[in-house]
């Protein structure tokens, strides 16, 4: 039984009371790896602020080309695109199951060894035991797993970009207009360097630590090697384009109800949205590069303010399973 805080665990309880339903996915074409370039300050869009993507899992399929591993387990979606319960008689769509991650190991992007790993993770899920992930174990997520966060905050400065994520205080630092060092020391989130290409923020990440516990790219246990290379491309979308994109997302991805998350979309904001398109390359795991998308709207927290709320996750020595080591720390004697 999962005994640590996780969105999936909360949703599992809610689904018992609400029933089930379905949602959708969106995406954009695959993109090529980043190239160097520097934009003038006058042409740089403002990406700063809180952004929310209240769908589970976070990755959206591309409109064309190879895409990420998806969930074979489906459920009927009972919430609409704004997180409200659907009206009686409304057609319910089949979407990704939020608390049972069974990866499609037949996806042609996977090499045979990787497909077998994804299959084994799925079998654990179907058995009811579940499988450990960075989220359930409270380990640093790494890239691109971290993109599955329902909320993030971008702090934009001329020489660096800082990205704060809504779950468990995870932070990434992007050095602007720099190159990767000749000798990269692997780290949790890798070495990220960025630049602007017109109205697009491009972030190139390499050197992501592969020799670590619960190392995976997504909720389905998809592995990676030290050759992993990820390129992100962020651009602003006008309100109508954002709305259309999220309507596609809602046909395949589970829409998280606002009560389960600290930050949700701001229903009153009619300005630009934000879309991330990222590409993944790893010759040790994948037969081809693939892409995915994440579409955001401006976020607001449950207190009605524009800031991320603290979300704490404590590591568990037993790796996912319950036991005495999973209990909350307790003093052996009073401090006073």
Describe the protein.
The protein is an alpha+beta fold. Helices cover 13% and strands 24% of the residues. It is built from four helices and 14 strands. A nine-stranded mixed β-barrel has the order 1-5-6-7-8-9-10-13-14. It has a two-stranded antiparallel sheet with strand order 2-11. A two-stranded antiparallel ribbon has the order 3-4.
Total of DSSP H or I helical runs spanning 4+ residues: 4
Straight-line N-to-C gap: 36 Å
Overall average residue pLDDT: 84
Tell me roughly what share of residues is in helical segments. 10-25%
Question: How many structural domains does the protein architecture include?
Answer: 1
Count of β-strands: 14
State which percent range the strand residues make up. 15-25%
**Residue windows where pLDDT falls under 50 for at least 5 positions:** 1-5, 12-37
Output the structural class: alpha+beta
Please list the strands of the largest sheet in the order they lie side by side: 1-5-6-7-8-9-10-13-14
Identify the overall geometry. Answer: globular
Main sheet record: 9 strands, mixed, barrel
Quaternary structure classification = single chain
């Amino acid at each position: 039984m999962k005994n640590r805080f996780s969105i999936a665990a909360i949703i599992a309880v809610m689904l018992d009371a609400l029933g089930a339903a379905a949602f959708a996915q969106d995406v954009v074409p695959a993109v090529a790896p980043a190239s160097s370039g520097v934009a003038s300050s006058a042409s740089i869009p403002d990406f700063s602020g809180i952004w929310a993507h209240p769908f589970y899992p976070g990755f959206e399929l591309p409109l064309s080309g190879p895409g990420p591993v998806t969930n074979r387990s489906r459920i009927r979606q009972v919430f609409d695109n704004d997180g409200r319960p659907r009206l009686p008689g409304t057609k319910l769509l089949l979407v990704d199951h939020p608390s049972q991650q069974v990866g499609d190991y037949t996806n042609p992007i996977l090499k045979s060894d990787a497909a077998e790993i994804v299959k084994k993770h799925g079998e654990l899920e179907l058995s009811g035991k579940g499988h450990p992930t960075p989220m359930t174990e409270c380990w640093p997520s790494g890239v691109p797993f971290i993109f599955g966060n329902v909320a993030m905050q971008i702090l934009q400065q001329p020489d660096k970009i800082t990205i704060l994520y809504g779950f468990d205080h995870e932070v990434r630092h992007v050095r602007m207009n720099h190159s990767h060092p000749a000798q990269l020391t692997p780290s949790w989130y890798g070495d990220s360097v960025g630049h602007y290409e017109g109205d697009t923020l491009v972030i190139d990440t390499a050197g992501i630590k592969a020799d670590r516990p619960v190392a995976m790219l997504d909720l389905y246990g998809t592995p990676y090697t030290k050759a992993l290379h990820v390129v992100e491309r962020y651009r602003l979308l006008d309100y109508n384009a954002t709305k259309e994109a999220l309507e596609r997302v809602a046909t395949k991805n589970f829409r998280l109800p606002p009560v389960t998350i600290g930050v949700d979309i701001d229903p009153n904001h009619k300005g630009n949205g934000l879309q991330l398109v990222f590409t993944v390359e790893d010759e040790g795991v994948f037969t081809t590069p693939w892409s995915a998308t994440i579409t955001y709207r401006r976020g607001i927290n449950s207190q009605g303010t524009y800031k991320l709320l603290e979300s704490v996750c404590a590591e568990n020595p037993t790796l996912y399973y319950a036991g005495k080591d999973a209990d909350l720390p307790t003093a052996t004697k009073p401090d006073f």
